[in-house]
Amino acid sequence: MGIHRLKNIERPVSIYAVCNKGLAVPKLADIQAQTGSPKRRIAVLPFVNMSIDPENEYFSDGITEEIINALTRVEDIEITSRTSAFAFKGLNMDIRQIGEELSVRYILEGSVRKAANRVRITAQLIDTEDGFHIWSEVFDRYLEDIFKVQDEISRKIAAKLKDDFSDADVGIQHLIEPSTDNVRAYNKFLKGNYYLQKWTPESVLKAIRQYEKAIALCPDYAEAYAGIANCYTYLGAIGRLPPQKAYPKAEAAALKSIQINDMLADSHVALTFVRLFHYWDFKGARQSIRRAKAISGSSSMVSRAYALYLKIVGKNRAAIRELEEALSKDPLSLTINSDLARAYLNRGQPEEALKQYRKTIDLDENFRSAIEGQGWTLVALGKYEEALKTFRQYHQAVGHELQGITPLGYLHGLMGDRKQALHYLSLIKKREQQEPELSLAMDYAVIFLGVCRTKRICVFYISFWGRCGKNIFCFWHSML
What is the mean pLDDT of residues 35-59? Predict the structure, then answer.
């Protein structure tokens, strides 16, 4: 029945209803009436692109995201995060079923038709209890007025939910401030967001190019600089670019964004990652992530970043609480579900981690991060053969001979198969030669760590804990 706040209990808890013959399953509204949970929970489903050109999908997605972001600023209204809402994109499902899966009472859906310099946006607010349409309206505007119509829709929705569905929006402040007065730059920015949300190295590189085009049209576009910063932190974190190249670019873009507008959480999140992964500046990272939390504490992206910081400084219990809270707002997010599993594993709860990874894989059986995480959890449980099978599945999902092989190399070394482990090391070396821009130092370290358990390969593994709970892991390896 979702996650709810109960009296005298510090953090929200999951509530379940047992289904069986003779048992009455309560409605979500019945649960909310007896808890401290917000009664105005809403999800904004992806607006459908009704334009002739299918390439305009970036625009309809962008409109949806802007409305989601606007509604997060309204007190007493809890809105489902983008990730969970977009999980229903393109699915022809009953609104009542979607309401149950997202634990929301209300859903906003709509469509966008863009042609030349005109745009038509249709929006309708639906009660998921009975499927009744509370409100609907069609907005025909010039493209130059796009921010005004986004703000108008958001204010009308906020007024409906806050004032018991009255038609007045008195007292509802403007929720959307134009990020630029250049519509062409805004279009490039939305395209950048569209590519960034795909979260693949290729799409992120495309996103950077779109953000750069937006900045060329509007040099003080703070949101575009924030987008570039997040792109480069991602490329640095996954090793797609060398850290010494990726993180300085991310830092420069984040600082430029903050200089223009200090109220963008994305910029402070990017700066958090730079300080964590490039400078190992834990104090500075704490300042940046706290600033992001102050700006947008309800953002699941901010919660993920904060939880990562907590895990790195050894506060795994606090990280679990943060991720459980984030999951209540974004229940279908694969990354949050997977991050929570990893937090359980970090805290020495492999059984809980395994359950959570399997739950994540149930949401998407092809989600590679969860497949790999499940493999590492099986290693922690000593189930090596099962872990080996899982790592092979992960390698197959990656779909490349030279990628996704590090866990296999580690586990073969751990199981005493030195020959096979060194084979995977040779493949890592081959990839390094083919893609010299990649950073593969950790891949070497992990495989050597597995081999050192059984053979004469020396690996020094240092974990030291400071007063602030910092845990730093350093690897050196050399063949003897």
Answer: 84
Contacts within 8 Å (CB) and 24+ apart, 142-146: 142/117, 142/118, 143/114, 143/117, 143/118, 143/119, 143/183, 144/117, 144/183, 146/63, 146/119, 146/183, 146/186
Can you tell me the distance from the alpha carbon of 412 to that of 423, in angstroms, rounded to the nearest whole number? Answer: 10
Sign of the CA dihedral running 297, 197, 375, 409: negative
Token duo for residue 418: 């030195």
Q: Is the distance from CB of 27 to CB of 104 less than 8 angstroms?
A: no
Instruction: For the beta carbon of residue 248, count every other beta carbon within 10 angstroms.
Output: 14
Distance from chain centroid for Cα 65: 14
pLDDT of 171 > 80? The answer is no
Contacts of 34 (CB under 8 A, 6+ apart): none
CA angle (318 as vertex; 313, 320 as ends), nearest 5:
110
d(CA 441, CA 432): 10
Question: Residue type at 326?
Answer: A
Tokens in use for 462?
């240092």
Return the closest-CA partner of residue 175 out of 74, 256, 320, 263.
74
Two structure tokens written together for 189: 């920015």
**CA torsion angle for 86, 92, 94, 98 (degrees, to 10)?**
-20
What pLDDT score was predicted for residue 24? 87
Residue 348 in tokens:
């020495």
Per-residue pLDDT of 306-348, as tens digits, reads 999 999 999 999 999 999 888 877 888 899 999 999 999 999 9
Whether 273 has a pLDDT exceeding 90, the answer reads yes
Q: Determine the average pLDDT of the residues in 457-479.
A: 32
Angle CA 245–223–152, to nearest 5: 160
Pairing of strands 78-79, 41-44: parallel
